[in-house]
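Table S2 (continued). Query chain:
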Amino acid sequence: MKRAIFQSILHVIIFMLVAAFASGCAAQKKATPAPQKPVTQAEVKHICDGKTPKECNDTGVKFENSKDYERAKLCYQKACDDNEGIACSNLGSLHQKLKSKEESEILTIFAKSCKLGNKYGCYNAANFYRLGRGTEHDFAAARKLYEKSCLELNHAQSCSNLGGMYQFSLGVKTDDSKTAKKFYKMGCEMGDEIGCRNLSLIGDE
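Corresponding output:
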């Protein structure tokens, strides 16, 4: 019983990561923008006319950086509808930030992003399953998504989180320190500080 409680506490400490916007795009600008004009019906229909899905997503990033969230959502939605994976991830993250959709709907958006081969979509969907957001806790589903994002798409934080899944037997049959260390090391070598920290803490278990 004590071991179970201890593992639960460590699980919370190590997994103090939340699904967050992680697109690799330009950093948020700090300047306070002017109030945005209401979106017109013409913009709703034609905001990305003449743009590729990638260009439409990039336009959405520019709008989001200037805090024009409604136009950003329009661009992300259009690009996501055209199967641009990063746009789906950006759309889900923006809805999450603004709390403009139910978590179950956001999870669906992240899942589509992952299916389209975007590592951030897989990572964010995995976090939702692990944390029970918009769905029941499903550690096995979380582990599979972290594996895809880590092993196939080279996402550092997914590797680190996967290490935690193995260390605390979440979504796997038994705890496996050797495998946990392997994934912590992968996350660390890809630049994730939490992976490095957890690798040092797990020691020679």
